Amino acid sequence: DQQVKQNSPSLSVQEGRISILNCDYTNSMFDYFLWYKKYPAEGPTFLISISSIKDKNEDGRFTVFLNKSAKHLSLHIVPSQPGDSAVYFCAARLTGNQFYFGTGTSLTVIP
Amino acid sequence: NAGVTQTPKFRVLKTGQSMTLLCAQDMNHEYMYWYRQDPGMGLRLIHYSVGEGTTAKGEVPDGYNVSRLKKQNFLLGLESAAPSQTSVYFCASSNSGLAAHEQYFGPGTRLTVT
Question: Do A97 and B92 touch (CB under 8 A)?
C-alpha cells in the first residue's frame, strides 16, 4: 500500500503565479519529508526538506509546509518560472534511511 | 566532480539472463541506495547500504542482490531477469549524520527485459 501519495498527476500554472504541490502520507513514524525535482532522462534532484518536528521550511522561492495532524505536506513555489516545469516527487524517510516516494506531479509553468 | 554515475545507461536482456548494474559515487558518502521507477509507481527502494560491507532490503528486494565491497561502489545484480524487472533504475547516495536525508541521484539505467 502506498505510504506516500501525490493525488494530482499534473498541474499547470501561469508564470509569476504560485504553484502548490500536495502530498499525503500514512505512516506517523516518518521523521523527514523531502521534495525532489526531476527532468526527463535525468535523476531526481533534491530540492527542499523538512523535519517532522517543524511545520515550515523556506529556501528562496520554495517553501514546504507540514501539517502532522492531517498527515499532509505541500510545496509552494513563488513566483513560478518556466524553468520550474518538471516532475516533483514527495518523499518521506523512516529512521534507518528507508525512503518512500510518491508517484510525482508534473508541473507545467506557462510563460 | 562527477557525483553519482551509473553504468550502463541502457540495456536489453532476454528473460533468464543475468546482469550487474554499477553505481559509483565520488562524494565519500556513507549511504547508497538502489531504486526502480515504473510508470505510475514513483520510485521504490530495492536495497540500500549504510556503509562499506553492509546491505539491507528495501521495499521491493525480491529478484535482486547487491554488494558494497568498496565505499564508493554499489552493485545491483539480477541473477535471472524477468519482464517484470523492466524499469528505470536509479542509484543514489547520501552522507551520514544530519544530511543523511539528502540523496544525490545518478542519471538512471533503462533496462528492458524481453
Answer: no
Mean of pLDDT values over B97-106: 86
Per-residue pLDDT band for B1 (boundaries 50, 70, 90) equals low
C-alpha cell at B24: 559509483
- List B residues 55-114 in contact with A (Cβ-Cβ < 8 A): 56, 58-59, 90, 92, 94, 100-108
Beta carbons within 10 angstroms of residue A89's beta carbon? 24
Q: State how far the Cα of B66 lies from the Cα of A15, in Å rounded to an integer.
A: 44
Q: How far is A56 from chain B (nearest CA, A)?
A: 17
The string of pLDDT tens digits covering residues A42-66 is 999 999 999 999 999 999 999 999 9
Cβ within 8 Å, pair A104-B42 = yes
- Phi and psi at residue A84, to the nearest 5°: -80, -10
